[in-house]
UniProtKB/TrEMBL annotation:
PROSITE patterns: G_FEOB (PS51711). This is Ferrous iron transport protein B. The chain crosses the membrane at residues 282-303, 338-362, 382-404, 416-440, 518-537, 649-672, 684-703. One of its GO terms (cellular component) is plasma membrane. InterPro entries: Fe2_transport_prot-B, Fe2_transport_prot_B_C, FeoB_GTPase, G_FEOB_dom, Gate_dom, GTP-bd, P-loop_NTPase. PANTHER family: FE(2+) TRANSPORTER FEOB, FERROUS IRON TRANSPORT PROTEIN B. Mg(2+) binds at residues 24, 27-28. Belongs to the TRAFAC class TrmE-Era-EngA-EngB-Septin-like GTPase superfamily. FeoB GTPase (TC 9.A.8) family. GTP binds at residues 13-20, 38-42, 60-63, 124-127. Gene3D superfamilies: P-loop containing nucleotide triphosphate hydrolases (3.40.50.300). SUPFAM superfamilies: P-loop containing nucleoside triphosphate hydrolases.
Amino acid sequence: MASTDRIKIALVGNPNSGKTTLFNLLTGLNQKTGNFPGVTVDKKSGFSKLPDGTTAEIIDLPGTYSIYPKTLDEQIVQDILLDPEHSQYPDKVIVVTDASNLKRNLLLFTQIRDLGIPLVLVLNMMDVAQLKKLNIDLRGLSIDLGVKIIPTNSHSGDGIAALKEALTQPLVKSKRPFYDIYDLAPKTIDAIKTEFDLTENYRAYQYAQQSVRLNFLNDKEKERIAKIKDENGFYDVPTQSQETLGRYQFISDIVDRNVKNSRDPLKKSVSQKIDRVVTHPVFGYLIFFTVLMLIFQAIFAWAEGPMNLIEGSIAEFSGWVKGILPEGILSDLLTDGVLAGLAGVLVFIPQIAILFAFIALLEESGYMSRAVFLMDKLMRKVGLNGKSVVPLISGMACAIPAIMATRNIESWKDRLITIFVTPFMSCSARLPVYAILIGLVVPEQQVLGIFNLQGLVLQALYLLGFLAAIGSAYVMKLILKTGQKSYFIMELPGYKIPSWKNIGLTIYDKSKTFVLEAGKIIIAISIVLWVLASYGFNDNFRNAEENVRQQVGENASQEEYEVALSSYKLEHSVAGSFGKIIEPAIRPLGYDWKIGIALITSFAAREVFVGTMSTIYSIGASDDDEVTIRERLREEKNPETGGPMYTPAVAFSLMVFYAFAMQCMSTLAIVYRETKGWKWPIIQTVYMTAVAYISAFITYNIFS
């Protein structure tokens, strides 16, 4: 009979060991994201059905090289594994290692093994080890390490079934530690074991080593540990160094005994040969910008067909709903509120999916690490830490996880500058705004016979954000007087063929997040906006029919009257009145009160701009109008000139404004949490708004 129990299994390993790919293979689509209890560090967890019927919750812990944390993300691994009372404390641990680099990867395994937690060791990337001509004696290695070993290939999925089967079996704890820490501090270990009722020597040793950083210990417990250490002459740094060197000596002996390399040591690997080109000081940058150009070209060229299909389908469905429902509030709410907002969500799924597909492809193949390494040389010249490149590149997807990724930067000043400038990077939420405005004023034509002009403009906007980030970082460097040099050390993983299943899961996960998270905000604001745009409390709104009759005259047709009435009511509604209030401030940028409403509502999420415009122009349209939002914007007239409202001057001004303005209120909230105060979020918002306003003003006047 199948078991209905649920167990927790932690997935730990070094960065670039294939841990995330393995997580996706174990959990498939059954994943969820959130925060670890008490912190803002991202947590991914999912569920996997084991062969005996047990449901296992797989918790993907942040990548780390050892149990001694250097960053806030790595601190999570320590907090969970050293605290048996933690809500995420695992019943079992899967330690994922890169089979082609065992000497480096096994340090973390030996530390977790000595904590006494049941575990299984996964030798991942066996295909890479074979390419390097490494012959691994799995049986001998298993005996020497005292653990069950499962070889896997996360690219092909080989070994996953065996891993699931192993997790159903009792994982016996080894009676002997891998490295006997007791001789380094016997009195201290005994005293802490007695004080805290611990059974494992290594756990007690970790209490002594890291008591200051262990969040689950209270102040009195930390003071007691400090007193025990002082009484027994325990010194952290020299003892930790001795432990680490001792572990590496044992690891080296075991690996040398069980892993043989049959490759000519003088022959360069394929990765080394490729790196000579992609990290070249000249060709490397050309390749990097060519890759970016390909991405932006694809976003327009490949997404155009699916976007037209989605737009047309929603327009037809909206017309069908209007046709079957009687005229009234319900019909207007569904078509002009809900469906208009939904159109602003679904239409951009193809472009979002393509963007994240490329990002996942670059990460999976190993090229993203090279791009980060290459751009580090530029980062250091403007005062940024080399590790700032990761948040900046991540900012092209979303500023929130990108800002959280700054926790890997040890220097507070470097971290603050990175947090300050990251929102300048154009995130995926700005993509819908760029896409609809570019589609309005930039012709779909070829440049030099191979480049799409719309794609080139999109790339220019992303480059504009990057230059703004770099320039602002340099200004911040001068203000904060960060004169010290920044250094960047990172591991370049070997190149590998991407896992298409993993890329597919990434596309699905990111697209789902866009629809469910951004979509909820967009549709909710669309409904609220519909209410505000459909009702008013002033005399002009109450006397709308009489006033419009006088304006259009008695000879106007019923259709002309209804269009004029809808437009008049919108202008004098609650939303229209508010737009009129802020219109004088934005008129120098070429914007009217309708755009003003969108600027305000889109602070909830940048994508809301499109939903807002959809709602506003749906309300102002006739009941049988089934044209898409892009066509409505194209047909909008400027009441002062009689010409198109969305001229190149207005459209480019809007693009530049959105390229520089603070992304959204969620970004503001995460900056507040990461800087622990409102000082920097306020300064950041004021600065970015000023840059956006001045730049948009200059752009409007240039193109006018």
